[in-house]
Structure formats: structure tokens, C-alpha cells
């Protein structure tokens, strides 16, 4: 585990939504599942975030736990995600998960992609 100085964080609203989605998927009580966060090429700014539930760790995975949510990312993605916070919005201006990423030099209007 990497120290809390360099981690991925989860807001209270994001935690609630992750818990609800895990319940909907029938994996809420299964401790082997976690939230996998990845950075992939694409989107209008060049890089996009990807979220999935997973239960298989890979050799170079970085593992974090924040606010009761286990978050796993591959090492390459983590370089883009250091000190990023996963948030959730259910407001009128948009609904869904988004990232507050201090490493992004710019983001697109939709908030789904970024550049460094």
C-alpha cells in the first residue's frame, strides 16, 4: 500500500453511490470486489477515466482504501491519478462520477477527459 500522501480519495457522495451500485450488482457483501480506476487514451482532451468493479488483482496494482472504499489502479494509471478525489454529482448540471485531479493541466467541457 502506498502512503496517504499519494493516494486516491473518495468523497462521501461517491462512497454512497459506489455502495449502491455494488448492491445493485449483487456484490456488496463480497469482500473480494473493489473499484478499479484506470486512465485510458481517448476523449476530447486525450485521456479518459474508466471505472469498473473487479475482483482480480494484477501484479503491479496500487491498492488504496479511503472512506471505506477499496480502490485499485494499475501503476501506469496511478501516475496520472496521484492525489485525485473521486466525486459524485446528482445536481441539475450533470449527474455522475467525476474526478478532481490536481495533475490535470486541462479538462474538457464534459469532464470525462483530461490532459497533463
Automatic annotation (TrEMBL):
<dbReference type="InterPro" id="IPR031108">
    <property type="entry name" value="IscA_plant_cyanobact"/>
</dbReference>
<dbReference type="InterPro" id="IPR017870">
    <property type="entry name" value="FeS_cluster_insertion_CS"/>
</dbReference>
<feature type="domain" description="Core">
    <location>
        <begin position="8"/>
        <end position="112"/>
    </location>
</feature>
<dbReference type="GO" id="GO:0016226">
    <property type="term" value="P:iron-sulfur cluster assembly"/>
</dbReference>
<dbReference type="InterPro" id="IPR035903">
    <property type="entry name" value="HesB-like_dom_sf"/>
</dbReference>
<dbReference type="GO" id="GO:0030674">
    <property type="term" value="F:protein-macromolecule adaptor activity"/>
</dbReference>
<dbReference type="Pfam" id="PF01521">
    <property type="entry name" value="Fe-S_biosyn"/>
</dbReference>
<dbReference type="GO" id="GO:0051537">
    <property type="term" value="F:2 iron, 2 sulfur cluster binding"/>
</dbReference>
<dbReference type="InterPro" id="IPR000361">
    <property type="entry name" value="ATAP_core_dom"/>
</dbReference>
<protein>
    <submittedName>
        <fullName>Iron-sulfur cluster assembly protein</fullName>
    </submittedName>
</protein>
<dbReference type="InterPro" id="IPR016092">
    <property type="entry name" value="ATAP"/>
</dbReference>
